[in-house]
Amino acid sequence: MTSEQQTIVKNGLWKNNVALVQLLGLCPLLAVTSTFINGLGLGIATLITLVLSNTFVSIIRHWTRPEVRIPIFVLIIASIVTAIELAMNAWFYELFLVLGIFIPLIVTNCSILARAEAFAARNNVLDSALDGFMMGMGFILVLITLGGMRELLGQGTLFADAHLMFGSAAEGMELTLSDDYPGFLLAILPPGAFIGLGFLIAIKNAVDRYQSKKVVRVAAPVKPAESPA
Length: 229
Hints:
Layout: H1 3-15, H2 26-32, H3 36-60, H4 69-91, H5 93-99, H6 110-118, H7 125-155, E1 157-158, H8 163-166, E2 175-176, H9 185-188, H10 190-219
Antiparallel strand pairs: 1-2
Helix pairs in contact: 1-7, 3-4, 3-7, 4-5, 4-6, 7-10
């Protein structure tokens, strides 16, 4: 892997994370992350859209006139999302009903159009596909972390409704914190989503500050010991 590709991986997963740094796509992120499985379902759909849209945009970048590039990018994204929506309707119908309007609203996710315009339209196919995959993975990690945290605090469960994505064989995946857990209602309400995302952003910022201070300490020159008179 080249240094440029390593930078793409780091940016997608951490340094330029779509949700924690760019703060894009927050509407679906906050709305569907009431459970781990809901977040995973939307995250996978978004990842596939990012990879395919970046790939197609990169392929046609030399033949796209600047004045019409944005409508063409939106058309590509909308076509991909429509195909994903139809596939989910056919094979993951119950999950499709749960996610509802947020599947077609992937078209309006600013992060997807931003990656097409800022990266895929200027780079080769391989790097563009990698950028889409890493940005999608970074988004998925935030979705499932926030969804798992809200589900655990709000309902006392984890991996509930896993059968919606993995079939009837996954019905035994659900973990229960306690049979008499009363639940924490705020966690699964919209304010809980904002509070949970705020905690994740604060944790990331704290880690970044710690890392920067560590780098400064390592890079600081060591003063030579004074020789005795």
